[in-house]
Amino acid sequence: MKNSSVRIISLIPSGTEILAALGLTDAMVGRSHECDYPPEITDLPICTKARLDSNIPSDKIHDQINDLLQSALSIYQVKTDIVEQLQPTHILTQDQCHVCAVSLKEVEKAVDELTQSSPQVISLRPNLLEDVWHDIERVANIFDVDAVKVLENLEARVKICQQKIQGLSLEELPTVACIEWTNPLMVAANWIPELTNLAGGQSLFCVTGQPSPNLKWETLLVSNPDVIIFMPCGFNLNRTRQEAQLITQQPDWQKLHATKSGRVYITDGNAYFNRPGPRLVDSLEIMAEILHPEIFEYGYKGTAWERL
After folding, report:
1. Can you tell me the distance from the alpha carbon of 93 to that of 82, in angstroms, rounded to the nearest whole number?
2. Over the range 234-262, which residues count as b (16 or more CB within 10 Å of their CB) and which as e?
3. Other CB atoms closer than 10 Å to residue 168's CB: what's the count?
4. Which CATH number fits domain 168-307: 3.40.50.300, 3.40.50.1980, 3.20.20.140, 3.30.930.10?
5. How many other C-beta atoms can be found within 10 angstroms of the C-beta atom of residue 280?
6. Residues with Cβ < 8 Å from 85, sequence gap 6 or more?
7. Which residue ranges of the chain lie beneath pLDDT 70?
8. If DSSP codes are grouped into helix, strand and coil, which group holds residue 295?
9. N or C: which end of the chain has fewer CB within 10 A?
10. For residue 107, what pLDDT is reported?
11. 8-125 belongs to which homologous superfamily?
């Protein structure tokens, strides 16, 4: 990067990971309260805070989110005083999801209040894997760095997955339900159906590139998927285990094909599946390892996913 006076605040974890992949962490001066990877950025000042408590049960979180949105409040706040002190030249944010991170409107409002700087706001809105590649390229262009090697590496890893599952017949491609929220029950959409299909599964209940829909318990029972994968938004492996175990108490859970065959899995959705950045390729590899252990062994088991 030619300009050493660049000062970037990233208000979204996937944006932070894109900056890191492009070698731009040294230009970062601040982050969101959710940006926790790579480890070297965790000492940076935190520029956002949540208006809700993420330690309460998932149905209560859902209610709190709805209450905040109905009262026209953002779920997250920008700490304008800290942003002011940091004097950023650029702020990286998103307008993909009001629930995942601070909203674009909230960021623009904060920027309007700044007196010491007038940073350029870069907003990401990915719905598909290809959108993530475009975001990486766009961020690289803005900061005058080269994205070619980064993208070639990511795309090569996707191709390896595709090549390894090419010989599988339709019968060998399991039907998969990816659960993004447990109470109410929601299915993971956007890029998740795409990852599922690329990893040698058949995605159920949702459309690639579309928002995550609610799922009726009866629909899950009737469709009876071969595999169920829990990846609740913002939850790590331990929290996901707790959430998934509550679901297993539902009537007829034991009758499900996935339960009987021991093909119910938990993942660290917060680190992987929920973040539309470079680690979506790790997410694809995790999915491949879960769906086809006879073909793939990347070594993610135990840290990124486990059998429930």
Report:
1. 16
2. bbebebbeebbeebeeeeebeebebbeee
3. 13
4. 3.40.50.1980
5. 26
6. 45, 116
7. 1-4, 52-55, 58-59, 61-75, 96-101
8. coil
9. N
10. 85
11. Nitrogenase molybdenum iron protein domain (3.40.50.1980)
First vs last Cα of the chain: how many Å apart?
45
Q: Which two tokens stand for residue 272?
A: 């992987």
Cis peptide before 278 (omega within 30 of 0): no
CA distance 40 to 218: 45
CATH 3.40.50.1980 in the chain, residues? 8-125, 168-307
Question: 264: which strand partners?
Answer: 228
Distances from the Cα of 211 to the Cα of 47, 126, 189, 238, 289, angstroms: 27, 11, 6, 26, 25
SS3 letters across 166-227: CCCCHHHCCEEEEEEEECCEEECCECHHHHHHHCCCEECCCCECCCCCECCHHHHHHHCCCE
pLDDT the model gives residue 106:
80
Q: Rounded to whole angstroms, how far apart are CA atoms 136 and 159?
A: 18
pLDDT value at residue 207: 82
DSSP assignment, residue 94? E
Cα 60 from Cα 50, distance rounded (Å): 15
Bond into 174 cis (ω within 30): no
